[in-house]
Amino acid sequence: MTSGTTATGLDASREALADVVAIPVTPFAADGTIDTKAHRALLRRLVDGGVRTLTPNGNTGEYYALSPDERRTVTELTIEETAGQAVVLVGIGLEVPTAVAAAEHARRTGAAMVMVHQPVHPYISEDGWVDYHRAIAEAVPELGVVPYIRDPRLRGESLAELGRLCPNVIGAKYAVPDAAHFAAFARDAGLERFVWVAGLAELYAPSYFAGGATGFTSGLVNVAPAVSLGMLEALRAGDYDTAMKVFERIRPFEELRAARRSADNVTVVKEALAALGLCRREVRPPSRVLPEPARAEVAALIAGWPT
């Protein structure tokens, strides 16, 4: 599904961001390579479950543990498997030439958008942040571009400036764990100019929707698409009572993922998928598989979830 330079193309991409933005896992085979058969099956399960926006090479997909060739494989496989049934928002990043090359590859393979990971650098100026994203956005004017914002020091005015310079910067994945800060940032940047995606998934979605978000990312959706889509339906309807019932149901699972600075963020999701017999539990360093007692805890937490 390819986005063009027309307003219609960007409008379709904006609409796709106002949804559950699934971050698929990258399953590994016994020999440590990507298990492409399992990967296809997991993607098909998401699409068949009603998910319409996917981010290959996101953090739940172990982006930083994949080689450049593997990231290209994940992109190609996702676009091929979901062609015509989902909008693909490819995760890219690292230094500018690598990010641009990945964005161009995403364009060639048919992606609609790219999600730009937070720059990996110890010294980031706000002007430099704008320059970084501008270099990427200008290289692929046909694609929607979505910065992944994790830095609480970034001001909304910087995103506003980037949007002024680059019309194809259409949304922001906002992942600073502060709902009041998000609401102020969105208004400083332009509440209507960008599509606001709650980048900290279901537990933050209700408070971020109250501040202006219209979509949220999810790793949990790999395990139970109906749960994530149910929360979205409630939030779209303004039914916060129902949304918070979902919140309470998934809270122990998501808190396991967030514990110890999210040390087991991906590990818990893969453990749940392993408990369901959908893929192996293996993750790559610096992540690590769960010990036996924690595996049983994860299996117990997801028992009874619609799958």
TrEMBL record:
Family annotation (SUPFAM superfamilies): Aldolase
Annotated keywords: Lyase
First and last residue of the signal peptide: none
InterPro entries: Aldolase_TIM, DapA-like
Family to which the UniProt record says this protein belongs: Belongs to the DapA family.
Protein name: Dihydrodipicolinate synthase family protein
